[in-house]
Amino acid sequence: MSAPSNAVLAARSLTLGYGADPVVHGVDLEIDPGEFTVVVGPNGCGKSTLLKALGRVNRPMSGQVMLHGRDLRTRRTKAVARELALLPQSPVVPDGVTVRSLVERGRFAHHTLLRQWSPEDEQAIAEALDLTATADLAEVPLASLSGGQRQRAWVAMVLAQDTGVLLLDEPTTYLDIAHQYDLLQLFARLHRRGRTVVAVLHDLAQAARFATRLIMMDGGRVVADGAPHEVVTSDLVGEVFGLACDVVPDPRTGTPLVIPHEEPVAG
C-alpha cells in the first residue's frame, strides 16, 4: 500500500480540453504544502488550462483534482474559496467598480448568514491594499486605471481572500519590470510565511529565481519537474522552446539564467 499523500493539491490522470479536443493529457502531479511552484512552457502547451482546473474553473474531461485529499467537484464553492484563490489571466472588469469595492469581493467567501462584515474583513482589505501599493487608488474606478494598476488591484482582491493556496495565471501581465519584481518578491514573502503558491510565468529567469519547484510543460504534458537548476537546462530549453542557448548561473542569485545564442548577422 502506498503512503498517504501530504499534497495540498493533486491532479490524478487529469485530461482537460475544450469541446472534444484535449489540451492537457493525463497529467499527474502533487503540490505539497508551502511550495512555490511555477509552471512554464511554450504558448499553447496547456499550462493555463491546467492552472484553471486546479482552481475549479475548468472541468476535467477525465481524472480528478484533489484539494486536501477531496475531489474539488464534491466541495461547496464557498468552502473551496476559503482555502484556494485563483487570479485568472484576463479578469473581466466590472462596470463602475472602484478598487476598494473590487478588493472587498475577496472577503465574500468568509461571510455567512451569521457572520457578515467584521473588523477582520477591514484588516484583510487594508493589508491587501498596502501590500500591492494600491491604497491611494482605493476610491478610483477600476476601468480608469492603467493595465498595471488594474493588475495590482486584482492581486489585492486575491490577497484579501486570505487563503492558504494562491493560484496565479501570468500575474505580472501589463506590469513594468520594476513592478514585476515587486510583485514576485511579494509572492515569495507570502510563500516564506507559509502560503502555497502556484503560478504560470513566461519569463524563465523570473521563474527560476523565485520558484522552489519548476514544472515544464510541452504539448499538454509535463516534461520536467524539479528544482529550477534541474529543469532549466540548455538541452530542455532547446527541446521545448526551440531556442539554442547556454544556461549560466545568475551572478546575483546563482539561479539558472538563459543566454540565447547570437544569430550571425548577414554581411
Portion of residues within helices: 25-40%
Reported for the largest beta sheet, the result is: 6 strands, mixed
Would you list the SSEs in sequence order as H and E? EEEHEEHEHHHEHEHEEHHEE
Query: Going across the major beta sheet, what is the strand order?
Result: 6-7-8-3-9-10
Name of the CATH architecture of the largest domain:
3-Layer(aba) Sandwich
Notes on the structure:
This protein has 267 residues and is of the alpha/beta class. It folds into 2 domains: 1-83 and 163-267, Rossmann fold, CATH 3.40.50; 91-162, no CATH class. It has helices spanning 47-54, 77-81, 99-104, 119-131, 147-160, 177-192, 204-210, 228-231, 234-241; strands spanning 9-18, 21-31, 36-40, 62-67, 70-71, 84-87, 165-169, 196-200, 213-218, 221-226, 245-249, 256-260. The chain has a 6-stranded mixed beta sheet with strand order 6-7-8-3-9-10, with helices on both faces. The longest helix has 16 residues, at 177-192. The model has no long low-confidence stretch (mean pLDDT 91). One of its GO terms (molecular function) is ATP hydrolysis activity. Keywords: ATP-binding, Cell membrane, Ion transport, Iron, Iron transport, Membrane, Nucleotide-binding, Transport. Its main location: membrane. This is ABC transporter.
